[in-house]
Amino acid sequence: MKELLDDEPGKKILLLGNEAIVRGAMEAGIGHGSTYPGTPSSEIGNTFEKVAKEYGMYFEYSANEKVALEVGAAAAVSGVRSMVWMKHVGVNVAADALMTLMYCGTRAGLVIVAAGDPSVHSSQNEQDNRYYSLLGNIPMLEPTTPQEAKEMVKHAFDLSEKLELPVLVRTTTRINHARGIVTFGELKPPAKKGHFEKEPGRFVAVPSTAINNHPRLLNHMKEAEPLSEESPFTIEYDGKEPELHIVSSGAGFNYALEAKEVHDLSVKILKLGMTNPFPKDKVSKFIKDAKRVLVVEELEPFLEDKITQIAKEVNPKLEIYGKHTGHFSRLYEYNPDIVMKAISELLELDVKDESLKPKEFSLPTRPPSLCPGCPHRATYYAVKRALGKKEAVFSTDIGCYTLGIQDPMNMADFLLCMGSSVGAAGGFSKNTDQKVFAFLGDSTFFHSGLPALVSGVYNQHDFVYVIMDNRTTAMTGHQPHPGTGITGMGDPAPMLSIENLARGAGVEFVETVDPFDIEKTTEVFRKAIEHPGIAVVIPKHACVLIEEGKIKEPLYVIDKEVCTQCHVCTDKFGCTALVRDGDVVSINATLCIGCGQCAQVCPFDAIIQEVK
Amino acid sequence: MKQTNIILCGIGGEGLVLLSNIIGEACRLAGENVISGEMHGLAQRSGSVIVHMRIGDEVLSPLIPPGEADMIVSLEVMEALRYLHYLKPGGTVITNRRLVHPPGETHDLVMGNVKKYVEYDEVLDAIKGADADVIEIKALSLAKKAGEVRAQNVVLAGALSNALEDKISRDSFLQAIRGMVPEKAVDDNVKAFELGEKA
After folding, report:
1. What is the ipTM metric for this complex?
2. Hey, of A86, A344, A355, which one would you mutate to test binding to chain B, going by the most B CBs within 10 A of its CB?
3. Total domain count for chain B?
4. What is the CATH number of the domain that holds B62?
5. Which segments of chain B have a pLDDT < 70?
């Protein structure tokens, strides 16, 4: 990825959308970057990890998205070009800061990249973040390709400075995780350290300030209107004697353009690059003489509702097609097929479905699952053993361990968002007589598990608080966090102790245990269950996918002579490397990593290490 | 030149993203335009993974419509069947000669929902029965032979390179591999590529 630092304008390299975003920021002379990792935005941070130092900027993984934005906002008002990025739901965490930051505005460019996830590939919802631009009065750009993502980020810094407002670059999975050939522009040197010029009448959000800042924001948004009308990213694609007009933005545009080009359709397309403020004049002109317009946008009818509103003034007879007419869904991401179907319905085209139709075959599904050797599996197993026949509510959280929802564990009963396990566990404990567990990971604990812990101790909640410490932010691709002893730029950092934090919050029962020792872990959980109040258990073992957790032991095999085919290993423990064919159990040698958890689980010592 | 659409599929954690990187980089080196739609994050944990790759001047969106893939390259046979609806009639499936049972299948068996595990040959027959040309590659044993058991993806890159030879030169592929795999594994991966070419 060092190629990303090449100052060779015109050079073409293959980049993931997220890498292109990093390049765009460096072409704008970024000085500060902060984030909390979240799919599909994570590779932006992963890339800064590799280039920030050499480029000469500051980059950090903050404890959560709100902190990341606050850190970035301070940098920007001190005159340092800054970028803050997060997944779509991360904006919910940062929203408190964001809404008032819009009132205060910025000095140096501040770009916020919010990555949406239509089809919920890796998220808890598919909310359409474009509405944040309306809620907060945030100028917004929507890229459609990696190249455009790079150009837009660069442009967003200029826009932000011109308007003295943070600018939102709203992406989705098919931009962030599209990989394409990107042409470099000129690389700018990183922003130098700034100096904060005090201006309390603007930057201290008390009522007397807010009362002036609100009109200030609205005025700046007024100034943004002509910039949106003239946005270089808003492009019209002409069609001869168009039978249909299309307005589109984001990923959906690619599919509309593809339909036009591949099927040589006589349609006109208006691609909107800047969608807040809405380019009213541009759209008015486009639809004024049109008969029919189709709006192509994923998720909510954001553009469609605006166009409906505008059409009332400029072309009341216009037929508007989209989500309200059932031509498109408000659910999930689109693809070329979905968009072509809607177009062909309106143009009465006969498009044959030529896809292969294999004969009925009942294929088992393959959802993601805990890896072979994952310490979380051992933790879950130990909790189950400790509980025996006792019933319990499992309040879970966001991370790999959410996969505990699957068979044979079935240990996920309630989940909303990052950190929700802890507050909810308290609520269950106060309002039911059930035994309650909260499961969350180390990174999630630092993100939002801490305030809920403090609140739980104070309100005398009663549950077992399981902080599954695998020494990394695993699910998003192994980013460091405050407990890992390393910063986002690779420098050593104080290693925050979860134990000390819990004890400092007044928790009396705090036990750390290696979940690979299933017997001992079970014993700790037995004690924790009996403990009144909050009992913190920290099963601590590094993720087997990171260097610290790599296992170099010989693999395990089943001793067929000893195996009684009791199936505890397959049916209760369920490591993905264990295969059961009829009653015969074997271990898939290409999946086994030699962790030995199953050998501990086997009641008959029939799982042994292979002797070479 | 005409557009080529390739679906790459397999199981998370087996190097599918690296495979798509190698093909993408080989395209760039050969002067071909390319775009891909990938999956990262949660889906990578032993789950079913699909990458869409589109090569050629006319590439527009990062997703391939059903029925328009020229080829499916799969690291596991069930995944080839899962995404077979993307293939155009008469298209080619290059599949690893390997079947991995998903954990849910074991559970279904335990619960009595299914009577037996799915078998490799029945999956292959289902693919063959649907107007697809099939090329089977024993990628695991070839990768082992090359000295790098994790290079199954690169073996498949070798097999795929034959089909793309008029678009992407062999040298472009080799240069892409050298640039993208860890330095100490270069020789083994080049060997894996060559074994895939000949398979």
Report:
1. 0.95
2. A355
3. 1
4. 3.40.920.10
5. 1, 41-44
